[in-house]
Design goal:
about 290 residues, alpha/beta, binds NADP nicotinamide-adenine-dinucleotide phosphate
């Protein structure tokens, strides 16, 4: 039975770890706060005392944590997974991290004999729990062949962009475009509200108009209803992704990434307002009428 160490059991990671249990893998789990592992332990996962304990004897280590700092901590920190993972173990980073971090981590882990793949994901927590994510992979082709049995339980689509780091590049582009769209739809809807338009008609026009995307459609409904229950992606995570994407853009493009910087600015505010709430709360910031107290 193949052994997976799964590290990071937040909104996404908990469901992903569950997919390995459902698929018959032997699973060891670790999370900074243990309570998020309880349901997985009840389903047969082994609770590991640390990332190092989880990785001990694993065939693949899969991580799904918040950002660069968390990724560095669980792989390379005291009691990190790299300390015990044996040579040849697959190291699959699913977190959305910066491009620089993906390359640094790959170098460090390869230096220790591990096989590194970056595999950030597209899809919400429900897709994570049902194995319907799209994986955005950067890997050597032979490494991807080895990793496939560990990727298929998580996903319906595996997009291989090229060498290590390229999956992260695409993920950051994808999420920057998303940040711009969400900030844009919040502003558009706020204008419509303040101008007194019938928001039922506005929503219908948005949904069937040329600016519609699955993301715009999903967020516009929730924004107009001010319904942010069941946050799936927080303002803090969206801000983090936009910052990483802008840093990448600045390293590649001679002119400023104007829209990207505007999105970072918008999500700076959303993060200060409600960091752990749904990113769509952006509309509560931009819809304050002119002249209202801030
Ligand atoms: P989340 O619910 O906020 O979970 C974050 C996870 O990171 C938790 O397990 C948390 O541990 C852990 N963590 C944070 N800082 C840490 C540290 N310093 N050391 C160790 N662990 C740390 O986030 P999520 O929504 O699952 O997102 C996880 C990753 O997937 C992020 O990179 C995000 O950008 C990406 N992503 C999310 C979605 C989505 O729809 N939510 C979609 C695609 C990609 P605790 O539980 O102890 O806090």
């Amino acid at each position: 039975m193949a052994k997976v160490a799964f590290i990071g059991l937040g909104r996404m990671g908990n469901g992903m770890a569950g997919r390995y249990l459902d698929s018959g893998f032997t699973v060891a789990v670790w999370n900074r706060s243990k309570a998020k592992a309880d349901d997985l332990i009840a389903r047969g996962a082994r609770w590991a005392r640390s990332p190092a304990d989880a990785a001990d004897g694993a065939d693949a280590v899969v991580t799904m944590v918040a950002d660069d700092a968390a990724s560095r901590a669980v792989w390379l920190g005291k009691d990190g997974a790299a300390g015990t993972a044996k040579a040849g173990t697959l190291a699959i980073e699913c977190s959305t991290v910066s491009y620089g971090h993906a390359l640094d981590l790959a170098r460090e882990l390869r230096g220790r004999g591990l096989v590194y793949i970056d595999s950030p994901v597209a899809g919400l927590p429900d897709a994570a729990a049902s194995g319907k994510l799209t994986l955005l992979v950067g890997a050597e082709p032979a490494d991807l062949v080895r990793a496939r049995p560990y990727l298929t339980p998580l996903s319906t689509i595996i997009r291989h962009f090229g060498a290590v780091g390229t999956g992260t590049v695409y993920k950051l582009i994808n999420n920057l475009m998303g940040a711009i769209q969400i900030a844009g739809i919040a502003e558009g809807l706020a204008i419509a509200e303040q101008a007194g338009l019938d928001m039922r008609l506005v929503l219908e026009a948005v949904e069937t108009g040329v600016a519609a995307s699955p993301q715009v459609i999903r967020h516009s409904k929730r924004m107009v209803a001010r319904n942010f229950s069941g946050a799936t992606f927080t303002a803090a995570l969206r801000h983090k992704d936009a910052v990483y994407a802008v840093a990448l853009a600045e390293s590649l493009l001679s002119d400023a990434p104007l829209m990207g910087r505007a999105a970072v600015h918008a999500y700076d505010k959303a993060k200060a307002y409600a960091p752990d709430d749904d990113e769509g709360k952006m509309i509560e910031i931009v819809s304050r009428p002119k002249g209202a107290a801030t």
